């Protein structure tokens, strides 16, 4: 049996409209990305990327999206992401952009990167605090940005079955 290697692309949805983040859905992101791939790379690029393309994770609150595609076609996917200009959800069209943050071989590496990225963002917020209450709230959030031992042990068990 052949194992297909995948790449996971971590993206951030950037939008001026705050309603955009609250209304996005996995289906809408997937359709917008497929449309962009079709426009940029044509039928060939769309066929290459569609084989195992899926939206693995979407956090509408933070605007983080995790996309999966085959290893041999992730460059086609990454080159088409800047051409996503809007997301359609519930018969509304929201202007937005997708910013690629990280490309990893596993979901776990993308999670680790996301924790470090959020930690850096919180440190930048900490520098811009105006009062002590905000400072304490951000420090509390900063200290809670870590993977616990339970999660790392359960993640190691999943990797032991030979599906790294």
Automatic annotation (TrEMBL):
Superkingdom of this protein's organism: Eukaryota
Molecular function GO labels: ribonuclease P RNA binding
Protein name: Ribonuclease P/MRP protein subunit POP5
UniProt keyword DNA damage present: no
Source organism per UniProt: Grallaria varia (variegated antpitta)
GO CC, alphabetical: multimeric ribonuclease P complex; nucleolus
InterPro entries: Pop5/Rpp14/Rnp2-like, RNase_P/MRP_POP5, Rnp2-like_sf
Similarity remark: Belongs to the eukaryotic/archaeal RNase P protein component 2 family.
A GO biological-process term: rRNA processing
Function in brief: Component of ribonuclease P, a protein complex that generates mature tRNA molecules by cleaving their 5'-ends. Also a component of the MRP ribonuclease complex, which cleaves pre-rRNA sequences.
């Amino acid at each position: 049996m052949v194992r297909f290697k995948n790449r996971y692309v971590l993206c951030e949805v950037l939008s001026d409209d705050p309603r955009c983040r609250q209304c996005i859905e996995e289906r809408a992101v997937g359709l917008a990305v497929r449309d962009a791939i079709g426009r940029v790379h044509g039928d060939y690029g769309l066929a290459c990327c569609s084989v195992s393309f899926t939206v693995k994770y979407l956090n509408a609150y933070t605007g983080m999206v995790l996309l999966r595609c085959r290893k041999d076609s992730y460059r086609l996917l990454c080159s088409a992401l800047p051409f996503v200009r809007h997301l359609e959800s519930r018969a509304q069209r929201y202007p937005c952009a997708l910013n690629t943050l990280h490309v990893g071989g596993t979901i776990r590496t993308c999670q680790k990167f996301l924790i470090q990225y959020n930690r850096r963002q919180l440190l930048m917020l900490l520098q811009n605090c105006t009062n002590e209450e905000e400072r304490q709230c951000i420090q509390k959030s900063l200290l809670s940005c870590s993977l616990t031992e339970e999660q790392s042990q359960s993640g190691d068990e999943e990797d032991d079955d030979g599906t790294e």
